Amino acid sequence: MTQTPDPRSLLYRPGLLDPDTAQRLTAEALKACDDGELYMQFIASESFGFDDGRLKTADYSRDAGFGLRGVSGEMTGFAHANEISAAAIARAGETLALLDPAKGQPAPPPRSTNRHLYTDASPLDLVPFEKKVKLLEMIDAAARARDPRVAQVSASLAASWSVVEIVRADGFIGQDIRPLVRLNVQIVAERDGRREVGSFGIGGRRLYDDLFEPETWNRAIDTALAQALANLESVPAPAGEMTVLLGPGWPGVLLHEAVGHGLEGDFNRKGTSAFSGRIGERVAAPGVTVVDDGTMAGVGGQGRRGSLSIDDEGTPTQENVLIEDGVLKGYIQDRLNARLMGVAPTGNGRRESYAHAPMPRMTNTFMRAGNDDPAELLSRVRDGIYAKSFGGGQVDITSGKFVFSCTEAYRVENGKLGAPVKGATLIGDGPSVLGKVTGIGNDLELDEGIGVCGKGGQSVPAGVGQPTLLVSGLTVGGTA
Prior knowledge:
Layout: H1 19-29, E1 35-51, E2 54-72, E3 75-81, H2 86-95, H3 123-126, H4 129-146, E4 150-167, E5 173-191, E6 194-204, H5 214-232, E7 235-236, E8 240-246, H6 252-260, H7 265-269, E9 290-293, E10 319-324, E11 327-328, H8 335-341, E12 349-350, E13 359-360, E14 364-367, H9 374-379, E15 383-395, E16 401-413, E17 416-422, E18 425-429, H10 430-435, E19 437-440, E20 445-446, E21 452-455, E22 458-461, E23 463-466, E24 469-477
Helix pairs in contact: 1-2, 4-5
């Protein structure tokens, strides 16, 4: 077992950069700007892929660099390098001289916090290589032994450990150390020449700890296998406008995409969101409350996948109620859009890495539970489908229109679950769907820690969730 090094020594190295020099260079580079920061990052990551009964991939990488951003009015200057040194930061500072000088007062620094939602330890260092490979071997063998219809098993394990420091011209320094882990199992079941897939993933901002517990990885196998076997029995999905019952947990990804992105500050400042200029208006059915909360804890008190102690501008994350009882209350903001819209930042300035400038992004976005019994909601459906799990989707932010494919769904007739259906897609737009919610379950679930959110060419970890939801009318695309 290796010792985790002092985190700051990975950013500040003798002869290259020290904290006082970083502060001085940042102040010099941003002296004519409204806002901005030096964002330094070290990241180590690993991934293992087990497929067809053998270890197919085993990758390890380390990277370090900085991004220097200056903001003047609505203009942003940004430069980055994969070398953390005084010379490289000074060169990057020269590019910010092209910005027009700021005309107003410099933006105040983020408020300080000593809150830390997750461990400083690195998951990469605490479990030996051999044990990680052995886990994937055990998953493969156990899954194949579960059922004679199992034709193929793929299992993967991944982790990263990131050290972040944010330096501002006003003397503010923000620091964070971020672990992230994930386990995925995918099973292909075959019968009479027909093959179908099921999958399950789990993770979060924590160590590998419970992923190596038999209870956890056996649950992953059981869930993936059950989905694959259900799909093996599936019939072509019906098509047309019908009642849809959305399951709890991961189906919240539809809410994330169709509604969450439309509540991000940049789209609303520019007037390109379906929710622009609608603060205080009813945008959803009564009872619908949508929250983005970057402070949420998960397994063992550690952070959920979308949680952050501070965002990538140094602002502490917080609970943001976006829609309350159907009424639009606010947007999620980074510093730039918050300043231009005359509101406070909400702790949602996020970036993929040091090589990217921050923008408003979701953390953990979910709908709060209601009072309805999920079984009673099912009994209300005369003719429709129950969507238990989703795969990919496409969304137009301006209109909120979306198309989502179901990876596990069932026919519902006269209040009872029927045959699983294959090829079902849900088609609609976020604002309309929110208005058609006629039942909200008391069974709020958050996803297991697998979400990845894409925006503007950047990907960041995110969490989703919801209770069981009854939607009175959605267009279902199918082949029946």
